[in-house]
From TrEMBL, chain A:
Key words of the record: FAD, Flavoprotein
Alphabetical list of Gene3D superfamilies matching this protein: HUPs (3.40.50.620), TPP-binding domain (3.40.50.1220)
Signal peptide: none
Source organism superkingdom: Bacteria
Gene Ontology terms: biological process: fatty acid beta-oxidation using acyl-CoA dehydrogenase
Alphabetical list of SMART domains matching this protein: ETF (SM00893)
Binding site for FAD: 212, 237-238, 251-255, 268-275, 289
Cofactor names: FAD
Protein family (similarity comment): Belongs to the ETF alpha-subunit/FixB family.
Electron transfer flavoprotein alpha/beta-subunit N-terminal domain ranges (all copies): 5-188
Name this protein carries in UniProt: Electron transfer flavoprotein alpha subunit apoprotein
InterPro entries: DHS-like_NAD/FAD-binding_dom, ETF_a/b_N, ETF_a/FixB, ETF_asu_C, Rossmann-like_a/b/a_fold
Automatic annotation (TrEMBL), chain B:
Ranges annotated as spanning the membrane: none
Gene3D superfamilies, per the entry: HUPs
Pfam families hit by this protein: ETF
Residues forming coiled coils: none
Function: The electron transfer flavoprotein serves as a specific electron acceptor for other dehydrogenases. It transfers the electrons to the main respiratory chain via ETF-ubiquinone oxidoreductase (ETF dehydrogenase).
UniProt subunit comment: Heterodimer of an alpha and a beta subunit.
Source superkingdom: Bacteria
InterPro entries membership: ETF_a/b_N (IPR014730), ETF_b (IPR012255), Rossmann-like_a/b/a_fold (IPR014729)
Designated name of the protein: Electron transfer flavoprotein beta subunit
């Protein structure tokens, strides 16, 4: 067993996500406490290898299958191979698609405990203590991870990314691609970038954002009127999009757009971690939610527990006056 | 295609959640339990596939508060059979335990083609179900799935990679999927159909077998986040609060 902290770089194509650097930065802190080192697993696309100055070692896995796109099975086999070679003490994933895909199965294969939705990590003796955000952010759970190898999936934005960017030049270890990559039953076919659309919620200084609290498609009209009166786009949380009440380009969050307006007005949005990931760095957040315990109030600067159906018409009135 | 859909009950997040005296679980006495919303998306995708290419949809769930309602409603929407895994201790069930139990059930069903479940549940402290079941059965799995479309005997799977980027892969052979959203929003089951399902369907029982739980996180405490007290609450009636909000936006130079 080593005292290595292994970070799984969640990049299929394009830029290396900020989250990887967050994990390297936190990984360094854990490694120092454990008396070990920090490494990164880089699967498939090996471009921008030199970005990993914050790590001591980079494991790479190459295979033609990674050129065809993303398959959870291909990544699982590759990551499992890196884990087998590195024998890390800690494996860190993000709660992106790849983390959700692989953390459970890697932990299962390694007979390792796993904590997900992690927002904080520390070392205690030879164990790791994780704080996880549960129930949509309404409660936190502190848990102890014991074992030769432990696994955590970390919510994006939990740690600063700067710490993971600095440093020297890591050793590169090429890990032989496992044979299993030649006989996948889940074959990658393509990766598709989002289609360009007319609305660009990322460019607005002010956003009127609507959540499931609006109740129905018909009620969206009232929020649309407000957005129109302010001459800004209407954005939304995921359930509003999944219900088909607004098109996908309007979605804010982990699987939508990251926005950073001067003012973000949230109506009927609970503030689940996946939503916060897309808007928490807005300059000013004003939230309207009837539930005083809604997690959105933890990131909002101003809040009201008034019913949105009582409040929005008054804002409209005020604007028209 | 025979698709098994794993569903579960979850504390309604809109409710106030209190920590139990044990300090490591929620107080389950007064919370309302509802069906996990992502499991409903998984069911919808399975029903769409059945409508396209025929086959069978079986829903399976652990015996949890008000689960019958969820299972009958699945039947009313078009599922063919409902199975309840009984004999599991009440309280928080680690996802790893759920996975082991469901894996045993799936082994007993034998001839299924795909297992769908929700991408996550809000109390998945020890991992998401699809990956854990996939690993325990040795079957390929994928999560954050937004489409699963039949392509001959295979399934073409679309996963969201974030920011609108999509990854497509093709599953040839058994597959386990964690569904984020179906091709359409979950259909609605009219109350009359649910009543009909209740009188015409018998929920099958599957006795929970002994399983090896394996290592998991040891919960030391469960607690509400310490309020950073950041939000200044705007007091007053709707007219007054509206005035304050408009004033704030105006100060930022965003209203003429
Ligand atoms: C992999 C993954 C990716 C995801 N990506 C995203 C993403 O990109 N963006 C995103 O938003 N979510 C995303 N989610 C979903 C996320 O977990 C939450 O389910 C979602 O953010 C909840 O949306 P909501 O706040 O609108 O709805 P809810 O959580 O249902 O909240 C509705 C809120 O409205 C309030 N309310 C109700 N009625 C009123 C009223 N009359 N007036 C005022 N308030 C009222 C309620 O108190 C409640 O807090 C993702 C989930 C997963 C698993
Ligand atoms: N996500 C969770 N939500 C609520 N309770 C939990 C959660 N995780 C663990 N627990 C509780 O923590 C206690 C100890 O868990 P464990 O040591 O993992 O078996 C159990 O009584 C569980 O009920």
């Amino acid at each position: 067993m080593s005292n290595e902290v292994l970070v799984i770089n969640e990049r299929v194509q394009g830029e290396i996500p900020d989250l990887t650097f967050e994990l390297i930065g936190k990984g360094r802190e854990l490694a120092q406490a454990l008396g070990g080192s920090v490494s990164v697993a880089m699967i498939g696309d090996l471009s921008s290898l030199d970005a990993f100055g914050g790590a001591d070692k980079v494991y790479t896995v190459e295979h033609p299958v990674f050129g065809s796109g993303y398959s959870a099975q291909a990544w699982e086999e590759a990551v499992a191979e890196v884990v087998a070679v590195a024998r890390p003490k800690v494996v860190l994933f993000g709660t992106g698609t790849i983390g959700i895909d692989l953390a459970g199965s890697i932990a299962y294969r390694e007979k390792a405990p796993l904590a997900s939705y992690v927002v904080d990590l520390k070392v205690e003796g030879s164990d790791v203590v994780a704080v996880s955000q549960l129930y949509g952010g309404k409660l936190l759970a502190e848990s102890l991870l014991e074992g030769e190898t432990v696994v955590a999936t970390v919510i994006a934005g939990s740690f600063p990314s700067e710490a993971g960017r600095s440093g020297g030049s890591p050793e590169v270890v090429s890990v032989a691609a496992p044979k299993s990559l030649d006989s996948l039953t889940l074959r990658p076919v393509a990766v598709k970038e989002p289609e360009k659309s007319g609305v660009d919620i990322t460019a607005a200084d002010l956003l009127v954002s609507v959540g499931r609290g609006v109740g129905s498609q018909a009620n969206i009209e009232m929020l649309q009127e407000l957005a129109d009166a302010l001459k800004v786009p209407l954005s939304a949380s995921r359930p509003v999009i999944d219900q088909g009440w607004l098109p996908k380009p309007h979605q804010v969050g982990k699987s939508g757009k990251k926005v950073k307006p001067k003012v973000y007005l949230a109506f009927g949005i609970s503030g689940a971690p996946e939503h916060l990931e897309g808007m928490r760095s807005s300059e000013l957040i004003i939230a309207c939610n009837t539930d005083p315990k809604a997690p959105i109030f933890e990131v909002a600067h101003y809040g009201t527990t008034l019913d949105l159906f009582d409040l929005v018409p008054e804002i409209l009135e005020k604007l028209e006056a | 295609m025979k698709i098994v859909v794993g569903m579960r009950q979850l504390a309604d997040l809109v409710e106030e959640l209190e920590v139990a005296d044990s300090g490591v679980d929620i107080d389950r006495d007064f919370v309302k339990f509802v069906s996990n919303e992502w499991d409903e998306a998984a069911l919808e995708e399975a029903l769409l596939i059945k409508e396209q290419v025929g086959g069978e949809v079986v829903v399976v769930a652990l015996d949890e508060p008000d689960v019958d309602q969820t299972l009958y409603s699945a039947i009313a929407k078009g599922a063919d059979r409902a199975v309840k895994i009984v004999g599991v201790e009440e309280g928080w069930t680690p996802t790893r335990l759920r996975a082991q139990l469901l894996a045993k059930y799936l082994e007993s069903e034998g001839d299924w083609d795909a297992f769908f479940t929700g991408v996550q549940a809000a109390d998945d402290l020890d991992g998401q179900l699809a990956g854990l079941i996939g690993a325990s059965l040795g079957v390929a799995h994928a999560a954050v799935v937004s489409k699963a479309e039949p392509e001959g005997p295979a399934l073409r799977i679309t996963q969201e990679l974030g920011g609108g980027t999509l990854a497509e892969s093709v599953a040839e052979g058994k597959v386990v999927l964690g569904v984020q959203a179906g091709r359409q929003a979950p259909r609605y089951a009219p109350i009359t159909r649910i009543r009909q399902a209740m009188s015409s369907t018998t929920i099958e029982s599957f006795e929970a077998p002994e399983v090896e739980l394996g290592p998991g996180p040891k919960v030391r405490k469960l607690y509400p986040p310490e309020s950073k007290g950041q939000a200044t609450m705007l007091e007053g009636d709707p007219v007054e609060v509206a005035e304050k909000i408009v004033e704030i936006i105006r100060t930022k130079g965003l209203v003429r």
